[in-house]
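User: What would this chain look like folded?
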Amino acid sequence: MHLHLECSSGISGDMFLAAMIDLGLNLSPFKSLLGDIGLRVTIQGHTLNRHGLLGTALDITPQGEQHFRNLNDILELIEGSGLTAQAKEKSRLAFNRLAEAEASVHGLDITEVHFHEVGAVDTLVDVFGCFWALEQLGVQSVSCSRLPWFRGFVDTAHGRLPLPAPATVRLLQGKPVYPTDFEQEIITPTGALILDQIVSQFGQGPLGRLQTSGTGWGSMDLGSVPNGLRAFLLESESRAALEDIWILESNLDHLNGEDLGSLFAALQTAGALDFIYLPGVMKKNRPGGLLQVLCRPDDLTRIQETFFEHSLSPGIRRRVSERVILPREAATLQTPLGRLRAKTVHFKDHTFTKPEFEALQDLAEKTGRSVAELRYLLGASKEHQDKH
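Assistant: Here's the prediction, encoded as structure tokens.
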């Protein structure tokens, strides 16, 4: 199954879980799972009609005195929970990611991070519930709409901070956003974390056969706009999604190697999906080449300006092209040398998992081996395991 999220008025952890309930998720087993690890909390979903649309709102009420938790506290809860091995691993990755984001924006070491608001029971429920819900609904890939940008201020344990909150901004990096007039925290750090961990592609919509839909209501009054997250569950034979991308290209014969290197770096920093430089012979028998750059529609203006600024090309050709994307998701690869961050791609009934290059680089630094040597060793290890 494929899940598509429509986030036109934001997302929070409880909105996501409420939307899953509205899709048909039975939350009773999850409540028992929380009780088994000592999380005393009352979770109640109820149907609401807002703006003529039925949906589900979720009340999460902690019982008893609550304590702030650090990363190790949360990892211990995950390990002792009744989640599946896969859901445990995804929960570990999610909270590590959140700790890294908090540490980076507040100038702390990851071990010094105390989660304050996001360490409360309701956030634990949201993150655990997210991965549990996806397994229960048989979701194998997730896509999402562009994300609404918002402004204002929020009071936190660190004091009054601008919106989006610093950790939220870090988690939204690399994701397509657009401006709005919202002056409330319509995307919470937990909501941003969920998007960061489960969404494999952003676009105008999904591709597949629609099975059911649901709406998870938030608690904010946004005036004429209902504060809700819409979720669509689809089935597709290929489980692929369609999206439009822009192709920008220009013939360059006036840049030296250093200039080209600077241009490539600038395009990468600006968020280009990919680029390729094909050497050739230009007019007047000058050596040069064709530079082709791919970018998302939301990034077109920024990428085009970067292209012009760093190439000083007098003109850029551009066109829209449609591409088919196989569902992808973050994963962890177990190897004889330890765990590696990886990416899993689904095609028909097959899955393919390979380690992220950055993860191999980190392992190379720790082990003193080259990335090429690690690829060979890990490949040989997998071949040996397959034979036995």
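The radius of gyration is 23 Å. If you want, I can go into more detail on any region.
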